[in-house]
Amino acid sequence: MPGPISNILESLQAGAWGNLVDLTVALLQAGAVQWLYFCLSWLLVSFAFLLLFARTSARPPAWASRLFRLGILSLAALGYAALTGQLILAAVFFLLTWYVSGRLQERLPDWSVLGVQHFAAIAVGSLLLLLLIAADLRWLWGDHVALAVAGGFFVADVLITAISIGYAFEPLDVLCRVRWRRLFPPIAFRTGFYPMVSIHVPAHSEPVEMVKQTLRSLVQLDYPNYEIIMVDDNTAEPELWEPVMEYCRQHGIRTYHLEAYPGFKSGALNFALAQMHPEAQIIAVVDSDYQVQRDYLKRTVGYFENPEVAFVQTPQAFREVDSPYLERIDLSQRYFFDVGMRTRNERNAIIFCGTMGLIRRSALRRAGGWGEWCVTEDAELSLRLLGKGYSGAYIHEVFGRGLLPLTFDDLRKQRFRWALGGVQILKAYLLPLLGLGFGERKLRLTLSQRLAYLLGGFGWFADLLVLVFSLALLGIVGADILGLRTPVRMLSGPLLLPPLLFIYAGILRTVWALRQSTGCSWLTALGAFWTWLSLSLTVARACISGLIVSRAAFLRTPKTGDSPSPFDALASLRPELLLGLALSAAVPALLIHQPSLQTALISGLLAWHACVYWSAPWNAWGSYSGTSPTWRLVARAGILFAVVPLALWLGLLWALPGMSLRGL
Q1: Which of 189, 237, 357, 443 could form a disulfide with 432 if both were Cys (CB 3.0 to 4.6 A apart)?
Q2: How far apart are CA 286 and CA 399, in angstroms?
Q3: Cα Rg of the chain, angstroms
Q4: Residue 167 CB contacts under 8 Å (≥ 6 apart), including other chains
Q5: pLDDT one-digit tens code per residue, 580-637
Q6: Which residues, 6 or more positions from 473, have their beta carbon under 8 angstroms from its beta carbon?
Q7: 3-class DSSP assignment, residue 525
Q8: pTM reported for the whole predicted model
Q9: Measured in Å, how far apart are the chain's first and last C-alpha atoms?
């Protein structure tokens, strides 16, 4: 199908302009295509400036900001002009983007000019791409089935674009911020404010020595007025819970063993809530694998002097990170606290994270206690508390360290529960988050708070959309080989290159953000990003499950490293292996069957999706590599098949005829 510029030229030659509306739409579409390509140049130049100058945290003088802005847009215009030869359009788009980025800078006064320029390029380019895809659907008006299919994918495009813009906003909001408005540093408050704290430690079938270490660290806290309540939640093995009960009795810790008690972790926490000392005002939740610093309470409780503060959260951090695999897992989880929680805190939209946090007892009771219907009861509770007008405070300093999931299977269980809980929360609170709740379902939230929780809920669906697009791409390959037309094939070439560039630019930006926020190396940051990818299908399955079921069992994350056999673990990765193989094979099949620029762009998307699924066996090897030589073979296969589709794509792109950007 011809693109918008060629459509206009053909109309000119034939003298068949049609009506004025069609001509106007065609001209606007042609201009939008060119502006989109200007935005791609803008995106790359602004990212290069971030790499070079983003370490400067202080706000530069006004003249320096204008100079940076001028330099970025001038280089973007030069790059666009060099690619297209359109000098006049380059000047027009320079002025247009100068105006747009200036207005955005006014809306983001706490950001550096570098962050504003890069985010503006992402936002404007993404919105232009959506508008062009919508406009290109007019070619399908005569085919109702194709229009329905393409329309469905357009809705998916809208959702994943919104999620992508949100994910780009978060690291830029932290790493390019020059002024913070809501900072909560750890601090010893005035002498005399020591409200009684009740520390709740839920446990289920945990190693005895690990739980004892946690309790020992809590007994030694430097705080004058607190109690510890240890709740063993339905542990069936006496050899696990009886020694812990004896240790608690010896050290004056109030302890309870529950049998056949409902509600999982949230049920145990509700039980502990009912056993609290009547004078306790603050509740601290500590998981049974955490070792806590002595000054934890003294340096956090003071924020409860403000009656509007309902909960305080500190980062989850980890110890015994003694392998490359665990280092990648640690970094991927640190990112949430180093970036996600800091940007959410600026909007009073943090979540309570289940451990190393404190809650005001009266606020918890007013909110109705812990929600036993949700597998992520901590995040759900924080939304209810904020919805009642309370505030949350995030203290960005580590006060305790726990244990990471030691095997890939355990990590998948943990991520499945997190994603499932996120979908449960979104289902339950979608209308209230949109401002349509009534009575008890009404949430008193600001627009920024609503957007933060909506992004957090819909963000889980990004992996489900990746799965949908993967299957669609495989369908396109099959249809092409059989000679059938598909809605994607009927869209114009200019709309296929930008998504590919946005994807790879997003990878670079995420790896850069990981490196900037954690101080790790580029290679380690790439490994952490690869770890996120390896859980994509797990999250997609959790989203499907969350949409279907209303209640689910709580999947505990084991803290012991009982590794399955390589063959059992490979069996659990069968879907990822099959998808990776199919997508890898589709790259050369499509390029050889019909070599063209449009085919090459679709193959590039295939190569990226293949990498997503091959990352699972590669990451699994990282956790099981010490158990069997078989995993070394699995790892090499994972790396090989992740690299092969990209290498094939680049090689065939170079070798086959018709592969010129001028074809757009």
Answers
A1: 443
A2: 11
A3: 27
A4: 459, 462, 506, 510
A5: 999 988 888 887 787 777 777 788 888 889 989 988 987 887 776 554 455 455 455 5
A6: 583, 586, 602, 605, 606, 609
A7: helix
A8: 0.88
A9: 11
